[in-house]
Amino acid sequence: MAQRFWDHVSASLPAVAVAGALSVAAFPAHAEDWRGWNVHPDGYPNSVALKFFDEEVSEKTDGRINPRIYNNAVLGDQPDAIDQTRSGALDFGNFNMGPMGPIVPETDVLSLPFLFTSVDQMYRVMDGDIGKRFADALAEKDLIALSWFGSGARSFYNTDHAIKEPDDVKGLKLRVMNNDLYVDMVDALGGNATPMSYGEVFQSLKTGVIDGAENNFPSFESSNHYEVAKYFSETGHLIIPECLCVAKSSWNALSDEDKSIVRTAAEDAAKKQRELWEEGAEKSREKVEAAGVEVNVVEDKAAFQKRMEPIYQAFIQEHPDLESLIDDIRNTQ
Ligand code: BDP
After folding, report:
1. Cβ-proximal residues to 300 (8 Å cutoff; 6+ apart), any chain
2. Which residues belong to the signal peptide in this entry (predicted)?
3. How far apart are CA 5 and CA 9, in angstroms?
């Protein structure tokens, strides 16, 4: 019943009103009807994997738990959704570690530019003991990280010119996700960073409120930013993992048997997402290029990396306890 009513509400109200309604928990779901948050549209690799998670859990628990993912951030923007999952107003979500930083300081390590040398290295780190350490830090903030999705490498794009060297960023107004480290990153390149929610970026690009942003190919494409920003420069400055996270209260309400079913489904969903990602990123790239986006390889990444050194120094000064974690990640082959 709550579920059907919710469908009606979410279909007929704008996202802001829906988020507001949720925040006062006016429509609590049945314990077994799990509501999940996702920023991406239907068909996006993450959305397909999350749908698989929904179906798998419902089937394997014989309907004791019925997760349902809500796409397109209709349940609110990412920082709000993280809070709502921590409080148990939402049951699960697919969260990027960027906006997680302000809540779980340890995860800020993952937002240090050029930390990982490849997506595969990131997977190896997150699938091993270091990933467990991040999961423990998240659990302390009431989020149970069950598996890790990839989100490729993020690069800059803008409406004006190709970025080939750091000084090409000078003066550009660039949208970043909600995390001060990204503001510092753009500052270090001489640009002006504007933290803004994902849903506002398209309109802001169109009206010239910002000149550009940064993201991976699938998001650049599915958000339609490519229709406005015609220069995509492969800086690949951030490789950020994303969690499939369950609210601690929803998790604790499960029997051991159901916990194991949910965990396995989350791990299988991550496998699927990572496979779909490869294919999806290639297709997105082809689509934006066919639409006239000029994609340029950035030859001298070291020049960008060098500009990030003060960010590392300041970070380590502020979090001396995290220096060895950075080293451990860098030493992971
Ligand atoms: C996408 C991430 C998503 C972020 C979005 C953004 O998958 O979690 O919300 O970027 O830039 O790549 O806000």
Report:
1. 164, 165
2. 1-31
3. 6
pLDDT tens digit sequence for 41-74 = 999 999 999 999 999 999 999 999 999 999 999 9
Ligand 1 center to residue 198 CA distance, Å?
Answer: 7
Domain contains 226 = yes
Does residue 205 belong to any structural domain of this protein?
Answer: yes
Between 7-11, 110-114, 147-151, the lowest mean confidence (pLDDT) is in: 7-11
Count of domains forming the chain: 1
Atom of ligand 1 nearest to the CA of 175: 11
- Is residue 149 classed as helix, strand or coil in its secondary structure? strand
Dist CA 85 CA 298 (whole Å): 38
pLDDT of residue 265: 99
Domain span including residue 176: 154-239+283-319
Distance 258 CA to ligand 1 centre (A): 30
pTM of the model: 0.91
pLDDT tens-digit map of 127-145: 999 999 999 999 999 999 9
CA angle 200–98–31, rounded 5-degree value: 85
Distance in Å, CA 96 to ligand 1 centroid? 7
Sheet with 33-37, side-by-side order of all strands: 66-70, 33-37, 92-96, 242-247, 143-149
Ligand 1 centre and the CA of 31: distance in Å? 29
The protein residue with its alpha carbon nearest to ligand 1, atom 5, reads: 198
Closest residue (by CA) to atom 2 of ligand 1? 96
What is the C-alpha to C-alpha distance for residues 58 and 262, in angstroms, rounded to an integer? 9
pLDDT for the residue 211: 98
Q: Is 105 exposed, middle or buried (0-12, 13-18, 19+ CB in 10 A)?
A: middle
**Of 96, 73, 66, which Cα lies nearest the Cα of 216?**
96
Q: Is residue 310 part of a domain?
A: yes
Q: Give, in order, the Cα–Cα distances in Å from 238 to each of 119, 134, 216.
A: 10, 18, 9
Q: Which CATH number characterizes residue 205's domain?
A: 3.40.190.170
